[in-house]
Specification:
single chain, 519 residues, alpha/beta, seven-stranded mixed β-sheet, three-stranded mixed β-sheet
Length: 519
């Protein structure tokens, strides 16, 4: 008798066929369920406690999924969907996760009805094409100007925790930041928009600084703490006596020789300060060490200097002031220097905070976020990050669509109408995709306190009559109406990315029929 051949270790766990798909679908649905109740302006918060006891309270989908300790590989794929959504467009993570979970749930029903996974996957891809067409059909005509960007930013922050500062005020700050750093081709480098947070004041103290804010102290206590109309040098070199590239020993046999050596070193250090002063430098940002003697000479020359600044900060200083990053002082010219309207060091809660304010043409800005507690600051920062993401996406893409679930209603309607033209069992997958998309407005309605079924019926009727319908929440009132009339709009790029990433994750999971896990 032939002996059995073992290719896996005894500790390996293997799940295959329908059991594997059920396990993966269940994991995906669990992830979607975890964030579903946070969707919309009236979404609920989640309290996350890590192993060290640190508490995070938020309704931001990306933060929730990142903080959750998820081990199941299929569930981890949905977390990656949210991370991808956050990286690409900055918002829509909850929508993407909920949609992916619903696509898996609807697919499970089809698999139970003996529809092959391949047919479901092909049907979902056909449905995605129709859904993207529906998004294009919902584009709002007109230029995406500042007023539209304000609407987009405020919509993204509605329902987020922002302390005692109104969302429309934060929206003004966010839009001003984006427009400040945008180039003529409407391109925005997110690295040019920095966020600096600090407790000790109310959230209403949050402001936009046209320049850089960072926490450090001057290289010498005797340096000036405020410099107006400053010439700025950004250096990538060590400011001290130069050392040779080879080990060299000097023999000193007298006090006179020692004094001469010390005098030579001091003269070299003094020359460093003098060369900077002669070039008209008022402020120095150095990414490497400034020795204490050199710092003392710089202070004597009235120069404000900062030592060992981060490379990222050095880049920001150069962008904010127009300075060139120099690796040597030889041949330094006035054109190598930048300019700042002011550089000041303020003492806040016992720490030095530096404000480098450039001109109106500064290409780097900082959102200085304040709050009375760490929780308020963290939530305000997350709200700002979402607003920045959608504002940049809307400005760069130039397309916006109605929010409040209106696009999802239009997509579902388009899919059900287009399913008739799809042949075979793929048509069932297209209809299942439509049902999955309906979960977004249904969840918005449920979180707003409406009956989800009645709300869905009313949304479809209003859409059939007027071509657009959403669940608009304004304070205590909830109304099914045209979201654009109430200034509730979203970037089209967010909707497209959510559809594509959710479909990709769901179809990838559905293709898996064998899970082999090492113990």
């Amino acid at each position: 008798m032939q002996q059995p051949l073992y290719i896996l270790t005894e500790s390996t766990q293997r799940t295959s066929g329908l059991d594997a798909r059920r396990s993966n679908v269940a994991a995906g649905r669990a992830v979607a369920s975890a964030v579903r109740t946070t969707l919309g302006p009236r979404g609920m918060d989640k309290m996350l406690v890590d192993s060290s006891g640190e508490v995070v309270v938020t309704n931001d989908g990306a933060t929730i999924l990142k903080e959750m300790d998820i081990e199941h590989p299929a569930a981890q794929m949905l977390v990656e969907v949210a991370e991808s959504q956050e990286a690409e467009v900055g918002d829509g993570t909850t929508t993407a996760a909920v949609l992916a979970g619903e696509l898996l749930a609807r697919a499970e029903d089809l698999l139970d009805d003996d529809v092959h996974a391949t047919a479901v996957v092909e049907g979902y891809h056909e449905a995605l094409r129709l859904a993207l067409d529906a998004v294009d059909g919902m584009l709002i005509e007109g230029d995406v100007d500042r007023d539209v960007l304000l609407t987009v930013a405020e919509s993204a922050m509605t329902g987020k925790g922002t302390g005692d500062i109104a969302t429309h005020v934060l929206a003004e700050i966010v839009v001003d930041a984006v427009l400040q750093v945008a180039d003529d081709d409407r391109h925005v480098d997110r690295d040019d928009i920095r966020v600096f947070t600090r407790t000790g004041a109310s959230a209403a103290a949050t402001e936009l600084v046209r320049g850089v804010v960072f926490e450090t102290e001057p290289a010498n206590d005797n340096m000036p703490r405020t410099v107006e109309d400053a010439s700025v040098a950004v250096l990538d070199l060590k400011l001290d006596v130069r050392s040779g590239e080879v080990d060299t020993e000097y023999t000193i046999t007298s006090v006179e020789q020692l004094d001469a050596a010390l005098s030579a070193e001091d003269a070299e250090r003094r020359a460093i300060a003098e060369s900077l002063a002669d070039a008209g430098v008022d402020v120095v940002f150095c990414s490497k060490k400034i020795s204490d003697p050199v710092a003392a000479h710089l202070a004597d020359a009235g120069i404000l200097a900062f030592s060992n600044v981060k490379k990222s900060d050095a880049r920001a200083f150069a962008r904010a002031t127009g300075a060139r990053r120099l690796g040597t002082l030889d041949g330094m010219e006035s054109s190598d220097l930048g300019s700042a309207a002011s550089v000041r060091v303020e003492k806040q809660s016992g720490d030095d905070v530096v404000f480098v304010e450039g001109s109106d043409a500064s290409r780097t800005v900082t959102l200085y976020v304040r709050g009375s507690t760490d929780h308020v600051v963290d939530e305000t920062e997350r709200a700002i990050d979402d607003a920045l993401g959608v504002t940049v996406a809307a400005y760069a893409d130039g397309d916006v669509v109605p929010g409040a679930g209106a696009v999802e209603i239009a997509i579902a309607d388009r899919l059900r109408a287009g399913a008739n033209a799809v042949t075979g069992r793929k048509a069932l997958a297209v209809e299942a995709f439509a049902d999955a998309v309906d979960a977004i407005p249904r969840t918005l309605a449920e979180n707003a306190g409406l009956d989800p079924i009645d709300a869905l019926v009313d949304l479809r009727a209003r859409h059939d009559r007027d071509g657009v319908a959403g669940i608009v929440i304004d304070g205590p009132s909830v109304e099914i109406t045209d979201p654009t009339d109430e200034h509730v709009v979203d970037p089209a790029a967010v909707k497209r990315e959510a559809l594509e990433s959710a479909t990709e994750a769901a179809t990838m999971i559905l293709r898996i029929d064998d899970v082999i896990a090492a113990n």
